[in-house]
Prior knowledge:
- This protein is mainly beta.
- The chain has strands spanning 18-22, 34-39, 48-53, 59-60, 62-66, 71-76, 82-90, 93-94, 100-104, 116-118, 124-126, 131-136, 144-150, 156-161, 166-172, 177-185, 188-189, 195-200, 220-225, 235-240, 246-247, 250-253, 259-264, 270-278, 281-282, 288-292, 303-305, 311-313, 318-323, 331-338, 343-349, 352-358, 363-371, 375-376, 382-387, 402-409.
- A hairpin with a 5-residue loop joins strand 22 (250-253) and strand 23.
Amino acid sequence: VVISGDGTNNLSYTERVSKTRRSQSQLADVGNTCELSLTVPGANPRDMRAQVISPSGREEPATVGSDGRHKFQVSFVPEEYGVHQVHVYHYDMEIQGSPFPFTVGPLEDGGAGSVKAYGPGLEHAESNQPAEFVILTREAGGGSLSVAVEGPSKTDIELEDNKDGSCNILYYPTLPGEYLVNVKFNDQHIPNSPFRVLAVSGQAGVFPQPDTGMMPGQQASFVVLIPNVQSPRDIQCRLIAPSGKEQPCTVHKLDSHGNYAVKFVPLEIGEHRVEVRVWGAHVAGSPFLFKVGDTKGDATRVFADGEGLYKGHTGQSCGFVVNTCNAGRGTLQVTVDGPSRVTMDCKEVDEGYAVKYVPHVPGEYIITIKYAGPFHINGSPFRAHITGPSLPGYVAEETMTQQEVVTVDTIAKSSMSQHPPASQSGPGDMPRADPSKVTCRGGALKKAQCNASIVSK
């Protein structure tokens, strides 16, 4: 077979893998001890508690035990028949999937709608690392359970039947990308299936600081020193999102000196905190605080300076600098409209980006600078008066303007000073700043109160 044509690196393939089991559950009876088995990675039984609400709304006592492998059993003795709601808490916050229904007495065939799936492997994954979640089929009655994972790589699946109406699922994505986790009971999707899971590269960066431009869905990690701890299983971590929702963290041992890597994927915008505990006590520095999404570009903090914004000469390079320090990360767009197209380029400098353009015919050129979307920076648009003769081969358009655009995806930059630059030269009729005409008034100039917001103008 002869294959011809241009190759492409944009193709991907999907591998389907599925496994099937029969759902078998034991009946629970009034007056007998009932157990609900759950898997909570990274949790310590001393930090777990449970609350069982009977069908009549009465609270029944419950205990939480563990086999030492992040598998927990919620035990209680029911006093009435019907569907009980089992609330499970970790650090006084309900775990994912809670409350869990538990029927005492004859089980009805609830079907796919009664199957629950929960666990970090349904929210995020890491390439070449196992992703784990749990499926509860007890309330669904008899039937077949199937799991299929679709994505950009072959994905092996392991199913561990706990023989109690639940099973643990491990799957191994080998490439980054989006995967679809399909969970079906009797060939019907369970609630929220298929689950969309973003698998990120196994190589995570350094712990993000507030001004690094971190966005939701990006994996982050940091290293914490915890001496005298031999196993990551003794370390409990949780990520608290701005909404109060708890998201999973993973802990990996780096060396024999007590260095551990904490990895997580924030899904919301705002201030997050990561709590790291050993045997119930915070480690030094915990909770760790950081922001997500707050570094989105702010056009009001961007300034431009240079002769090229106001004047120039045909055939000569006209330049200016766009200062993006302390403006966050965003897209910089520079547009030059005039009687002819210009030759333009842009390169990164310490304070931002240096832009140069070469006009070919004289006339007035409009320079528009936008940042982080359709937002003009301070002073935009600028008017540059270009003098000199027309270059050979170039003729000014009388009925229309010519446009040249350059777009740059910037990185977050910081500076100790946020003052706008003073232009070294500009048009003679351009108004100059006069500080004597600036006024400031307000009660905050005379007195203030601790922890209270007071505004002056």
